[in-house]
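To make this tangible, we now present a fold written out as C-alpha cells:
***
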Amino acid sequence: MAINTHETWVIPALREWSTYFIFEGRTYGPIQTFKLLRANLIVGKKDDALITFEAGGKVYSIVEAEVGEPLTRLLTLDKIYELAI
C-alpha cells in the first residue's frame, strides 16, 4: 500500500511504514517512518543524515540530532519551500 501526502502530522500513524520523499522529481529514501518522529530538518549537508535532498535551490538534511526544526512541527512538507526563500 502507498500513500502520497505532504502532511507530516500523519507520521505517528504510519510509524511501521517506510517513507520516501520526492522533491523536484527526485526520490529520496527509504527511511523507517518511526525515525521521523524524532528527526529534525536542517539547512545544509550532514554526513550522518537520514537523507539529504535539494529543494528550492538549497540543500537540506533530515537528521536525528538536537538541531534544526522538528519535521513533525512543519505540518506540511510545503513549508520547506518557504524556508528556501
